[in-house]
Amino acid sequence: MSLRQMEYFLAVVEESSFTRAADALHVTQPALSHQIKALERSVGGALLERMPRGVRLTPMGRAFLPHAQLAVRSAGQARRAARAAAGAAGGELHVATVHSVAVGLLPAVAARWRSRHPGVQLVLREYASTEALEEQLDRGVADLAVGPEPKEWTGPVVPAGREELVLVVPIDDPLAGHGSVRLAELADRDWIRCAMEPVVHGEPFLDWACGKVGFTPRTVLRTEHTSTAVRMAAAGTGVVMAPAHTARGALGEDCTLLSFDPPWHRPLAVFSRVPLTGAAEAFAGLLAVPPRGAPAGSSALAGSSATAGSSASAGSAARVVP
Question: pTM higher than 0.70 for the full model?
Fold first, then answer.
């Protein structure tokens, strides 16, 4: 079997039609059908079943599909890596991340990348959860990922600083003049929850953390995206826990960020299925470049965790979010 045959197979699956797939591939339908039949002969059985309206996978086709997707994506990744390593115009680097990192951290990183590597285009793929991010990277959808440090990952993992989780309250909230707040002080508050909230020991992180100090958070609103939750908090709907860099990117001057006491941090990392080389290695290195004015040795990610107005007690040890 050939890579082209697998590409043709995936096109038919995606379009659910030989005719539409042939149009998308700019080949004739007989030529496409010939390649699919040759692929089926090589694997020893039918992969696709022609229906009166469309095409569907056979059991053998369903088993074959994820491997074909991985093979085609890996070939594309190899081509991109080679072109990007050579600095070739038109090279691409595919980066997977979670939405909160995409809107909070990566805009500044992408701008620096563009100034240093103008010939290599970034393609950003965003996911709603760390589980989806890791699953999709494992399937080969991107060259590398930037997000919460994975717990169990067989490929390279490069620590890339940490993000601080903060509390967002309206500017006129009684807590707005405080630099920090203990979680136990928030037992009577209304909470905005986000679908991207980390999961700890099988339950949402906020439920787990609040339970540790003796209360269940009273949820009044749920959102899909962290940036939406932050704006809802600024409007006075409730309070919300959010990554500091995401909160800053989503708010104006109508709300305040408070550190938790002790502070909450979540480790971040760059990780990949294969060793980081070429453009992927350069991108990972860029994340370790200190932002302007930051102390030597700090990283772009680590620097983003400092919270304006933070005054958590000096004796408090930072709490790492699992």
Answer: no
